[in-house]
Amino acid sequence: MKKHNFSAGPCILPQDVFKEASQAILDFNNSGLSILEISHRSNDFVDVMEEARSLALELLGLEGKGYKALFLQGGASTQFLMTAQNLLSKKAGYINTGTWSSKAIKEAKLFGEVVEVASSKDANFNYIPKGYDIPTDLDYLHLTSNNTIFGTQIKEFPTTNVPLVCDMSSDIFSRQLDFSKFSLIYAGAQKNMGPAGATLVIIKEDILGQIEREIPSMLDYQIHISKGSMFNTPPVFAVYTSMLTLRWVKKMGGIAAVEELNEKKAKLIYSEIDVNPLFQGFAAIEDRSDMNATFKLVDGDLKEAFDSMWNEAGINGLNGHRSVGGYRASIYNALSLDSVAVLVDVMGDLERKA
Ligand code: PMP
Q1: Ligand 1 pocket, 153 CB below 6 A?
Q2: Does 152 contact ligand 1 (Cβ within 6 A)?
Q3: Is 76 part of any known ligand binding site?
């Protein structure tokens, strides 16, 4: 039986995508060949790459606005360094909202001066800093739109003339934003887009080519753009599966429709956390993530009972990250409202039994 998968990533993808991707492993496009055994230079795969790149821009509303989409390898973690290596000549600003921002800051320091413009480290990253002043002499300001571990999400992005770079690994394609506010967006595929192994990078081309350092080819955005995201062998299956998921988002009615469902799911889980006296949310209410709901049991003695109840209900992946503890319900695009209702029922049952 299919589990209710609340895993933080890799995570649930649409069931239809799993089916279509498995079929392509056996026979891709009725070619008599598996997607895993064809050349990445074959017309069939070049079409996949081009569709994935153009769907990404289309869904984000960035077509014809000077942006390019790339599917690279090395995870979002490689983007921590590539962004700085390609964009940081003197000074960059970072908003530190958790583990992933901190890692991005560490890598950027290898390439120039880094200013931590704001941080929520003082409260174990349970909120999003606001009202900070952005120095005007920054090469870029780096933000993390959704903090997967702590369950916080930026609801309003700063307005500034400084180019914005954003790690959207855990909420890309989940909500409508004015994506043209950003000069560079990156996201590991393994949340809302596909299997681990591909990283989507969306770049406004005019921010490139402004630094003097030499960049190794594999780490140079301009080289990847000039080669149509095919400088070397791309992660063929991860790109194909991401393309299928992007088609699914489009078929669902685009980001707007997906967002509507995501809001319903988030409302359902957070109202239970707020109403049920046995549970307590982790993140500041106004900064709660619509993708990762973090919470804990007020009375730790109920852990054993609660854990066995959700396990029995067919729920998977609910344990919180070790730096926060408690529980984390990741409610990415492909998770149904029904799955969230199953979890909420279990939480209610615990209250009735306790
Ligand atoms: N940024 C965020 C917001 C993440 O959630 C993660 C992974 N969970 C990463 C970066 C790191 O991604 P990767 O493992 O693809 O390097």
Answers
A1: no
A2: no
A3: yes
* Global pTM exceeds 0.95: yes
Distance CA 51, CA 243 (A): 7
Point out the ligand 1 atom lying closest to the alpha carbon of residue 9: 8
- Identify the CATH homologous superfamily for domain 254-353: Aspartate Aminotransferase, domain 1 (3.90.1150.10)
Domain residue spans of the chain:
15-252, 254-353
Q: What is the pLDDT along the chain (354 residues), one digit of tens a residue?
A: 899 999 999 999 999 999 999 999 999 999 999 999 999 999 999 999 999 999 999 999 999 999 999 999 999 999 999 999 999 999 999 999 999 999 999 999 999 999 999 999 999 999 999 999 999 999 999 999 999 999 999 999 999 999 999 999 999 999 999 999 999 999 999 999 999 999 999 999 999 999 999 999 999 999 999 999 999 999 999 999 999 999 999 999 999 999 999 999 999 999 999 999 999 999 999 999 999 999 999 999 999 999 999 999 999 999 999 999 999 999 999 999 999 999 999 999 999 998
Task: Please tell me the distance between residue 82's alpha carbon and the centre of ligand 1 in angstroms.
Answer: 14
111-116 CB contacts, 8 Å cutoff, 24+ apart: 111/81, 111/84, 111/85, 111/213, 112/84, 112/88, 112/139, 115/91
In CATH, the number for domain 15-252 is 3.40.640.10
